Amino acid sequence: MERKKSNLAVSVDVTKSKDFLAIIDAVGPFVCLVKTHVDIIEDFDQSLVQQLQDLSIKHDFVIFEDRKFADIGNTVALQYSSGVHKIANWSHITNAHPVPGPSIISGLSSVGLPLGRGLLLLSEMSTKGALAVGSYTQEAVRMARAHRDFVIGFIAQRTMEGIGMQENTVDKDDFLTLTPGVGLDAKGDAMGQQYRTPRQVILESGCDVIIVGRGIYGKDPGLVDEIRAQAKRYMEAGWEAYQDRVSAQA
Ligand code: S5P
């Protein structure tokens, strides 16, 4: 993030590998991370993974497969390592719902830790009526603190720093907060998504990374110049908000 002066992650939710690769190549210079939903790609094959890895090296970004694991340890270990997608082989980080309890972390870390991978827990969600609130969110953060070797942060709507900690604790968390539901032009979509601006997310809510999908590629996945321009716009907005937060804290 510091190297590229970017706290922008782009979520590339398209169904054709040609569009997928073209968008990533266009936004690559502006992002610290590319988020994928590899199971929506209709013409997926192993060569796509190789091309994604090549782009990750070319543009210096981290790959995050947004798999949202949510099952028992044994099942998630298999889903993570095996099947068509073999996510653990190529995705630097992935994420999980804390709903099954700590065993989901043990299951995923049995595969991911030896490969040097990291995990994000979904402690909150961006959608209207989300159930991940209150004590659920607190327990998610406690689960993360108990597994710092593998959990590197959260998908959440605000910083999780200090959440669920006893008062007067001097311990500091060092987790990342990556935040979806970010848009500069829309307030939401027709299916419950809710958008806030990079400023609200980074400066007011203390998050670290903005995750932007349709705000960047939404008009037409073929309009590469427009996509590049939007990526630059979001990168600048995200980084400016971050710098303002850091200077306000100094
Ligand atoms: O709470 C969440 C968690 C995630 S990971 N809300 C979300 O929207 N996401 C993901 O972020 C979602 O699966 C999608 O890939 C992306 C948001 O896309 P956008 O097009 O609405 O920006």
The second-level CATH architecture is: Alpha-Beta Barrel
- Bound compounds, please? 6-sulfanyluridine-5'-phosphate
Strand order of the largest sheet: 1-2-3-4-5-6-7-8
Following the backbone from N to C, one meets helices and strands in this order, namely EHEHEHHEHEHEEHEHH
Count of DSSP H/I helices: 9
By CATH reckoning, the class would read: Alpha Beta
CATH superfamily: Aldolase class I
How many strands, what sense, and barrel or not for the largest sheet?
8 strands, parallel, barrel
Beta strand %: 15-25%
**Coarse structural class:** alpha/beta
Distance between the termini: 19 Å
What's the structural domain tally? 1
- Broad shape: globular
In short:
The protein is α/β, with parallel strands linked by helices and 250 residues long. It contains nine helices and eight strands. The protein has helices at residues 17-27, 46-59, 73-81, 87-90, 103-112, 134-145, 198-204, 214-217, 224-249; strands at 8-12, 33-36, 62-69, 93-96, 118-122, 151-155, 176-179, 209-212.
